Amino acid sequence: MADASTRRRSRGGGGAARRAERTAVSFETAKYIERNIPNFEVLNEEALEVIETNAETVLEEIGVNFVENPAALARWREAGAEVEGERVRIPRGLARKLCATAPSQFTQHARNPEKSVVIGGRNLVLAPVYGPPFVRDAFGGRRYATMDDFKKFVKLAYMSKWLHHSGGTVCEPTDIPVNKRHLDMLSAHMTLSDKPFMGSVTDPSRAQDSVDMCGVLFGKEFVQDNTVMTSLVNINSPMTFDEVMMGALEVYATNNQACIVSPFIVGGAMAPVSVAGTLTQVLAEVMAGIAYSQLIRPGAPVIFGAFVTSIDMNSGAPTFGTPEASLITYGAGQLARRMGLPFRSAGSFCGSKLPDAQAAYETANSLNMGLLAGVNFMLHACGWLEGGLVADFEKFVMDADQLGALHGLAKGVNHDENGQAMDAIREVGPGGHYLGCAHTQANFKSAFWKTDLLDYKPFETWEEEGGRDTRMLASARVERLLSTYEQPALDPAIAEALAAFVDEKKASMPDAFM
Amino acid sequence: MADASTRRRSRGGGGAARRAERTAVSFETAKYIERNIPNFEVLNEEALEVIETNAETVLEEIGVNFVENPAALARWREAGAEVEGERVRIPRGLARKLCATAPSQFTQHARNPEKSVVIGGRNLVLAPVYGPPFVRDAFGGRRYATMDDFKKFVKLAYMSKWLHHSGGTVCEPTDIPVNKRHLDMLSAHMTLSDKPFMGSVTDPSRAQDSVDMCGVLFGKEFVQDNTVMTSLVNINSPMTFDEVMMGALEVYATNNQACIVSPFIVGGAMAPVSVAGTLTQVLAEVMAGIAYSQLIRPGAPVIFGAFVTSIDMNSGAPTFGTPEASLITYGAGQLARRMGLPFRSAGSFCGSKLPDAQAAYETANSLNMGLLAGVNFMLHACGWLEGGLVADFEKFVMDADQLGALHGLAKGVNHDENGQAMDAIREVGPGGHYLGCAHTQANFKSAFWKTDLLDYKPFETWEEEGGRDTRMLASARVERLLSTYEQPALDPAIAEALAAFVDEKKASMPDAFM
């Protein structure tokens, strides 16, 4: 495997590149989480087998629709499925057999090799919110997102210790034409951050642009041999695979780039109101989608996705951080592991309109559940607000701080001699205190997770300082981070080539806003 | 076992009692949680054995202090411990052997038999915050708690569907003399609610008053044969058992009333900074305390308690909802189950000064962890603020609403025919929606946990209604609940006897405020 950073340096060559790298400030990024705790599992063997059997029944009897995609229908027919109109009925066992060529884990390379991530196994990679058309902050209120907002979120993600991934559409830059935004978004991820990122899925041609831009950033040969993007391919639940998303998947799979194949389910609307029924549908949909990716290119990297939430049966609104969503996610993790596939689910989900207590309860419920469910790739891990309509600046840094707690929990319990601390217990004895003892002195710096945001000051101090709530503390942190941001070094030749690619592409087509 | 409510009716006799019961409004209370999900366990067999071995070493080599309690020292000496001054060294295996007579679960009777709770097994009983000297609400701010506040909290706990227990010192009524407040607090629990409650532990004589008042409420014979109080006995960690708490425990154990024997640990100050070291100390302390309860009366009901949090090493402030506290709680649950004892831990813990996002993250981390750790009795399950200094009215109903989510999660996954929902998947098919299908119609009312507080309205509606955050929604709920409160029926003869007991006791001693 080639070393991207070495090649990058040698390619652009010259003193400018070296100077740029030497003078850049480096912000600390934690390694992706490698769990040293078990997964939490809610389904027993009988329930797992019932769901797996039923999912095969769904694929065989009911089937799935591949919409406006004759090539996909032909591929399925050739693979042995029964195709009738756009309906694809997959004989029992075929989808699972096709899925077997998908890797159980894969490396997604970042342009900074230290920030490459391994997705799968016992790992958890955290990426920010994806898709909101609006942004919000404490002083500017709720408004349509712009490219300026987008860049700010990329910078915040770059500076967050606990985010391993720059994400994709952290918000929709609505001031840029729809058919050109992917170019600016990718350009921002590539130049303002050095973490791994996602490609465009809104049109097959934009997926191809994403691959081509990665060719500029990493070198074409490197991209042919390595995975440098993980992109989000939603299934239109129930059981519908549209031509846009499948078109993007076809481009990515062909190029050995990773896709999250992800049912998008508001339970009660796009799936049954029961947990087991929803899991059955999720499994059937994921198996069909991943099987299709392997028809495109056996061995293409994929992720078993499950975006699942429940519904408020009175208003029809989606609800977040609910117990039913947790049960489904725990179960989906089990199903993914039995297929030997990386698992994507959970996030900073909430329905609240503000980054208030409701938002935090809902988010914490979902984040904790995600860690314990064995999620390998958590999209939306920070910044999500109002059912995903809004990317919130304050909540972005609030959630990102909580992601540190997940890292701490995942460490599990060390019971070596230092962990046992018998010397400390002997030294202190009944009625003493541990603050000054040798064991505490030796271990206190790394013993406890440390927040960069939350307030632990005495009441009087806190009150004197203005009695600020979490949102106000977060607002100050957003401003501080953005004001100290420094761009990571990038070979100027590559930066120029990227800009030229974007300019050329933009000039080649008229603006489209729909 | 006698039926308390039958005897109560027959005792007070007369039409007044019957009329009172007939006209009372009944607020729905959920049955205590009976988990249908596994426990989450972070310690492997090797770690468990290391910790158990080390805890025996602590008891044998270092020992524990029983302070100003010659009778306790005599009991320990007789049981085979080595006593030197106030230090009690317990030979390997002795404490665990003594603990074996403690029951693995017990029933705590409420005066309304439908609200009696079984503590232990796979159950989880939820009780409100305990101990804050201050209260806070959105409009009155932070202030010393009074008896009026105390009564309001008892009413809110009575009206909360998801609280199974009325708790004890829901706040400190600082306007009542220290030596008399227990009488008013118990009286409030007994008359304003019909849920189970806790007794006083601030002096052995007050524990005896608690037992005597229960004799009035339940009938003396009933109290002799049954457990009607679960009270909180803290250990002064490290390894110190003071005469006040032990005096209360002696009274309760003698009378077959339950005690939570609970190390009170801010990690890094009262225990080592490591998880395994803290668990070692917790286990040693609990074993010593529970062994002592069984020396008083073999078979006395007890709970393995663990109040454990971490510390901000910069300021020395306790921190809440942290990953280290979670790991300790998961581990302590495993240790308690291996001893066959009910387990108390977790709660609505937070360090925040306001019921804001910080408070909710911290609380949700702790509540979720408590459910998954196998906690059987969760004190502080709602209303805790500012490290336990404050009982917050809005947070009380906010947290209480989240307790409903724990009930939902504990249900686990039903995979019977209705749960599988294959008919629904067949009926709807690819591209359809489930809102109107037969399975949804039949199941939607009970399919999803339903909040009584959180906002899921469309943005525009929410904004038109004032754009309220969670705290403001909660403030309105507090007011609505208190304005619709109705006292549960109580035989007037018992109410009079209770009032007479309190008056007589109060008249028998001068006020004390220290």
Structural summary, described in words:
- Two copies of one chain form a homodimer.
- The first copy, chain A, has 514 residues and is an alpha/beta fold.
- Chain A has a domain at 98-411: TIM Barrel, CATH 3.20.20.
- Helices cover 47% and strands 13% of the residues of chain A.
- Chain A is built from 20 helices and 19 strands.
- Chain A has helices at 4-12, 14-23, 45-62, 70-79, 94-99, 147-159, 181-192, 204-218, 220-225, 243-254, 275-296, 323-339, 357-372, 393-410, 417-420, 422-428, 438-447, 459-464, 470-484, 492-507, and strands at 33-34, 64-66, 82-84, 87-89, 105-108, 117-120, 123-126, 134-137, 141-144, 230-235, 240-241, 258-266, 302-305, 307-311, 318-319, 343-344, 377-378, 384-385, 390-392.
- In chain A, strands 10, 12, 13, 14, 15 and 16 form a six-stranded mixed sheet that branches.
- The model of chain A is unreliable at 1-13 (pLDDT under 50).
- At the A-B interface, helix 3, helix 11, strand 15, helix 12 and helix 13 of A face helix 3, helix 11, strand 15, helix 12 and helix 13 of B.
Largest sheet of chain A: 6 strands, mixed
Strand content of chain A: 5-15%
- Biggest chain-to-chain interface with counts: A-B, 127 and 126 residues
Let me know the CATH homologous superfamily of the domain at 98-411 in chain A. Trimethylamine methyltransferase-like
Q: What would the CATH topology of the domain at 98-411 in chain A be? A: TIM Barrel
The count of β-strands of chain A is 19
Q: Which spans of chain A of ≥5 residues are poorly predicted at pLDDT below 50?
A: 1-13
Structural class estimated from helices and strands of chain A: alpha/beta
The helix tally of chain A amounts to: 20
Oligomer: homodimer
The helix content of chain A is 40-55%
Query: From the alpha-carbon coordinates, what is the Rg of chain A to the nearest angstrom?
Result: 24 Å
CATH class of the domain at 98-411 in chain A: Alpha Beta
Termini distance of chain A?
41 Å
Shape of chain A: globular
CATH architecture of the domain at 98-411 in chain A: Alpha-Beta Barrel
- Please, what is the average pLDDT of chain A? 94
